[in-house]
Inverse folding.
């Protein structure tokens, strides 16, 4: 199997509330819009908020969306100014990343991550 592209598709209970969260509160840029949905750029991925298909099937998203930011403290201040509730304040995890947790209007967990300069993810291994 050859994967050519990928995206995360969320089918929220309240499309307008989710659209406002992802577009306005998080400030993600729109990749494209179509009748019944909006696709956002999210780093190397796409997040699609679909206004269709979510009402017939009850589902719970059991994972989390991992979004890397340049400066977690700046992101925290920006989100708080937009009225976004911080579920878990920024902290250094045992694996060395700084993380903060928020959630979208449907409770989908979003992990905002800052990779410190001395973390192995940033080291040049050549």
């Amino acid at each position: 199997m050859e994967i050519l592209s990928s995206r995360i598709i969320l089918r929220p209970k309240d499309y307008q509330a989710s659209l406002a969260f992802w577009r306005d509160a998080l400030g993600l840029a729109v990749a494209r819009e179509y009748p019944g949905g909006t696709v956002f750029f999210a780093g190397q991925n796409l997040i699609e908020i679909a206004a269709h298909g979510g009402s017939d099937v009850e589902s719970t998203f059991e994972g989390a969306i991992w979004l890397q930011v340049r400066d977690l403290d700046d992101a925290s201040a920006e989100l708080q100014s937009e009225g976004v509730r911080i579920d878990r304040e920024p902290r250094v995890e045992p694996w060395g990343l700084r993380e903060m947790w928020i959630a979208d209007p449907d409770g989908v967990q979003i992990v905002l991550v800052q990779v410190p300069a001395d973390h192995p993810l940033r080291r040049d291994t050549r």
